[in-house]
Amino acid sequence: MNHRTALASLHIGALFFGLTGVFGKLAASASPSIIVFGRAAFAVLALSLFAGLARRGWQALSRQDLGRLTLGGILLAGHWVSFFVAVKVGGVAIATLGFASFPAFTVILEGVLFRERIRRNEIVLVALVSIGLVLVTPAFDLASEATTGLLWALLSGLLFSLLSLTNRAGSGRIPAVQAALCQNLVVALCLLPVSISGLSAVAPPDWLWIALLGIFCTGVAHSLFVASLAVIKARTAAVVFGMEPVYGIAVAWLVFAETPTVRMLLGGALIIFAIILSSRLAASQPGKTKAAAEGA
Q1: Is residue 35 a contact partner of residue 84, using CB atoms and an 8 Å limit?
Q2: Residue 96 has pLDDT above 50, yes or no
């Protein structure tokens, strides 16, 4: 993989990640728990195939590794379920932008959990995301579906931030694809008991969207990201993945006619700018960037 193909792979991966909410909404007859179970199951198949083709050796896992991967899988399951609830309730744009708040949560949680000093530019990041979320919210009314959807999306962002910090704590020891495969397996096992009774009620076409979600938006997207890091700097990769909300909102606009308001566009622009700023900050510490992406 040369620089050009690596950059193209990154953009394709960002596009697939951005399509997550779109495929989730297209699977109209499936509940969020079934969507997440199917996504994880298909992702395990895709990641297993990638690992086999890449012929990468597996790292022996200690009890501490297994505990951390299990915790990461539980957080990933909660992150995905809350995100798809946000998609069902508030729409793709609201869910995507609400979830994009995770860099702000990460800054705050790193300061608390790792006792790292919060720098001035990170305070600016939190402020930008907060202002962006205020602009994205149509009305501060819990009876509003958009507000409820945004709250679910914020929960998704918080859980993803915790997942990123969990991955950061174990990054460098376990190969990224192996960690992602193990965590997706935990997700599938966690969601199987609450999903199994409703699997037969899912319309056959919706299984196609769930399969695409698991294979392309999880397995392929993650594999492209990992493969491209061999050529592309982590800083460049993180900035490219800052385009994920743009791709998601644009496709939802075309497919579902979810036309964003001017306020939402302004708020989204602030949040996306904050994502890129956060990515540049994290790129100075590559372990953080790569660890965050392992749970995307």
Answers
A1: yes
A2: yes
Q: Tokens for 152, please give them.
A: 């679910």
pLDDT digits (tens, 9 = 90+) for 14-35: 889 889 999 999 999 999 999 9
User: What's the mean pLDDT in 50-78?
Assistant: 83
Domain boundaries defined on the chain = 3-293
Q: How far apart are CA 232 and CA 6, in angstroms?
A: 7
Sorted by sequence, the CB contacts under 8 Å of residue 3 that are 6+ apart come out as: 231, 232
Q: How far does CA 53 lie from the centroid of its chain?
A: 25
Q: Is pLDDT above 50 for 277?
A: yes
CB distance 101 to 275 below 8 Å: no
Q: Which two tokens stand for residue 122?
A: 């990170």
Taking the C-alpha atoms of residue 146 and residue 124, their distance in angstroms, rounded to an integer, is: 26
Report the candidate in 240, 289, 294, 276 with the shortest Cα–Cα distance to residue 43: 294
Is the pTM here over 0.85, yes or no?
A: no
* Side chain identity at residue 66, one-letter code: L
Q: Which residue is listed with tokens 């395990």?
A: 44
Distance of CA 22 to CAs 14, 30, 75, Å? 14, 13, 22
Q: Provide the token pair at 145.
A: 């579906």
Cα 228 to Cα 223: distance, rounded to the nearest angstrom? 8
Are 187 and 218 in contact by the 8 Å Cβ rule? The answer is no
Is pLDDT of 261 > 70?
Answer: yes
User: Which is nearest to 278 in space by CA: 167, 121, 163, 120?
Assistant: 121
188 Cβ partners below 8 Å, 6+ apart? 37, 40, 41, 44
In this prediction, residue 291 carries a pLDDT of: 46
- As a whole number of Å, the end-to-end CA separation of the chain is 22
- With 0-12 / 13-18 / 19 or more C-beta atoms within 10 angstroms meaning exposed / middle / buried, residue 273 is middle
